[in-house]
Design goal:
Blueprint (H helix, E strand, L loop, with lengths): L38 H4 L2 H6 L5 H8 L5 H12 L9 H6 L9 H6 L29 E5 L2 E4 L34 H12 L6 E4 L9 H12 L6 E5 L2 H4 L2 H5 L1 H16 L3 E6 L9 H12 L4 E6 L8 H13 L2 E7 L14 H11 L10 E6 L4 E4 L5 E3 L4 E5 L8 E5 L7 H8 L1 H13 L1
Parallel strand pairs: 2-3, 3-4, 4-5, 5-6, 6-7, 7-8
Antiparallel strand pairs: 1-2, 8-9, 10-11, 11-12
């Protein structure tokens, strides 16, 4: 049984490294395949794209004997059991500590090891957030009255093994056959028509997939079409790109210029256009991140981060506080920390709700309030985001929490389930028995 960090005293925050100490060395040269790559070349998106690793053979060729054969075997078995295909950038590969890859926080997020995977929770289901059910047209989720999520395409520069949209993003895997949301102008027109027909819609999140994988022309087309609608007041381009390939901001001038033009158009129209990105660990933030953010800051482009709470990655107070302060230092506002969604194949990464509640208390007050993230849970079943302290009921023994969402789906109750491995042996056993399982759920709903 793994240890639930909600019951462990946090380490002393004074022991944390300086959040301003950003890595600026030629760290990629420790990778055999990149040993002779210059800084100028490594800092281009073209190098990053050409050398992105998408299978275990490429990983062996890149790392050579940095890790034993058993690691590659473990990875291959993990990929076969994962919902997301393998795709990782040279930048991320080079940031992994290959002296201890089993415990490295970046490796943990992107390269699945079969020996660390755990059985899915029995209450898990694909598309746990009900995005498809709340989609009036393909690739557009409209759950909140004034906000919609637009998914123009279904690919990303890298694939996170914990992706909420593993039902749609990336290519098919041995574990999952994906819903296809490829870039398609006809499908986009359906989304635009729906958005224009809804006067209450004011806020559109452009995601996917990842906005990084839109061409410069498509990025600008989508932004301009939406900004020209009288009802739309706010756009958010969602991308993990600043975390996994900041080089694109610096070297793909057409893309960065297109983003700038949309932001400037929004400013002229007195509308808000921002970038939402995603960092989970302070090691992901380097001097290259800072340089990319300096350019965006010069152009008046605001960036917020939405992280995910993950066991062994950022589930202690020191790491989470360091992440928030380092984001602030490079002008990224820490917006949300999500309790890990119930996603197939990554039960080893989930934490209890109690862990999120515990961390929120320790992070709040560590830096300015506007740079302090809200710790939220996106409720399974489509109830939307809820503050982690707002559960109507929470039984830590069974691991069941109950939420209500009166402004989204009034009258309904939404359940979240802590990972079974975090429970005591008696309750772990109860989850293996269908009648006991039903009894725990009924008791939680009844209050």
């Amino acid at each position: 049984m793994f240890t639930d960090t909600a019951h462990v005293d946090p380490p002393a925050l004074a022991s944390a490294p300086d959040h301003r100490d950003l890595r600026s060395d030629d760290f990629w040269r420790a990778i055999p395949a990149y040993a002779h790559v210059s800084a100028d070349e490594f800092r281009t998106h073209t190098f990053q794209n050409r050398h992105t690793v998408t299978n275990s053979r490429q990983l062996r060729e890149t790392l050579a004997d940095l890790v034993p054969a058993s690691f590659y075997d473990d990875l291959e078995a993990g990929v076969k059991n994962a919902p997301m295909a393998l795709r990782i950038s040279p930048y991320l590969l080079a940031l992994i500590d290959w002296r201890a890859p089993e415990t490295d926080p970046i490796r943990t997020q992107f390269l699945p090891l079969r020996t660390q995977q755990q059985p899915d929770h029995p209450m898990l289901r694909y598309d746990s957030l009900n995005e498809r059910e709340d989609s009036p047209v393909p690739g557009l989720t409209h759950r909140y009255r004034d906000k919609a999520l637009f998914l123009p395409q279904d690919s990303c520069p890298v694939y996170c093994r914990f992706c909420t949209r593993s039902y749609a993003v990336g290519s098919d895997t041995d574990a999952v056959e994906k819903m296809k949301l490829t870039a398609n102008l006809a499908r986009w027109e359906q989304a635009f028509a729906y958005i224009a027909s809804q006067p209450d819609l004011e806020d559109i999140v452009i995601s996917g997939g990842d906005s990084y994988n839109l061409s410069a022309g498509h990025l600008q087309l989508i932004g301009e079409r939406l900004l020209q609608m009288p009802n739309i007041r706010r756009l958010r381009y969602a991308t993990k790109g600043l975390c996994v390939q900041p080089q694109k901001i610096l070297s793909d001038h057409a893309w960065t210029d297109a983003l700038t033009r949309v932001v400037e158009l929004g400013r002229r129209l007195h509308k808000d256009v921002v970038v939402h990105t995603h960092f989970n660990h302070p090691n992901e933030i380097t001097a290259i991140t800072r340089d990319a953010m300096d350019l965006l800051t010069e152009r008046g482009i605001h960036v917020r981060s939405q992280g995910v709470l993950q066991r062994t990655v950022n589930d202690d107070a020191t790491t989470m506080t360091q992440l928030v302060r380092r984001l602030s230092y490079v002008n990224i506002h820490a917006y949300y920390i999500y309790v890990h969604d119930m996603v197939p194949g990554v039960e080893d990464l989930r934490t209890s709700l109690a862990t999120a509640q515990h961390l929120e208390k320790h992070v709040r007050g560590a830096t300015a309030g506007f740079n302090t993230p809200a710790f939220v849970l996106d409720t399974p079943g489509g109830g939307g985001k809820r503050d982690v302290h707002s559960a109507e009921r929470y039984d830590r023994a069974s691991g069941i929490s109950v939420f209500e969402s009166p402004s989204v789906k009034p009258g309904k109750q939404f359940l979240y389930f802590d990972p079974i491995a975090a429970l005591d042996p008696a309750h772990q056993w109860r989850w293996t028995q269908p009648t006991e399982r039903r009894a725990m759920i009924d008791a939680a709903l009844a209050g």
